[in-house]
Amino acid sequence: xxxxxxxxxxxRQSWDRRKDExxxxxxxxxxxxxxxxxxxxxxxxxxxxxxxxxxxxxWSQRHQWATRSADYDIWVDEQDRAEIxxxxxxxxxxxxxxxxxxxxxxAHAIKEWQVRLAAGLPLNMSLETAALLSxxxxxxxxxxxxxxxxxxxxxxxxxxxxxEDEEHYERVLAAKSxxxxxxxPDDLTRPVLSDDTTGDTTDESGxxxxx
Length: 211
Known about the structure:
mainly alpha, 3-stranded antiparallel β-sheet, 3 strands, flat
């Protein structure tokens, strides 16, 4: 009766006590699972009364201690990460609440100063203190919500036209940046020669041009 197995109320996990696992064997497994070195000798010495290492080794193989301990490690790691995430969210909420409180305090102080200034009364708080409150509130809000992203625009230049080559294109861009007229392609700026005898028209290289 003392070794009676009690079924867990929730979903079973691999590291829970098995149906064919005695109470002493499960106790040995828990010692193994929670120990720093996870050595069979450590388990054998920690049991009350102590047990032989050979017997502990048989329990370890029969009930798959290594696999169950690895599953338990993964579960513990997931719980730790979930707790860290909850603390991070809680911390952001606290910082945001403090930021809102400081904003209200600084706004109240500024309003009080405005009233006192209008009445010609001295201020009870320095301007440096108000500036510090406002700056601290902004920093806390930024930590809680993240920095505000600026709107960024990309300038796109659309150039319509044809160019003789890349050099001509670069000359056009350079001229536009200086406010000068766009240079014409070389074939449009070459001197044109006319042969009075034949009526043919050529450029300075001797290439015959169509009339």
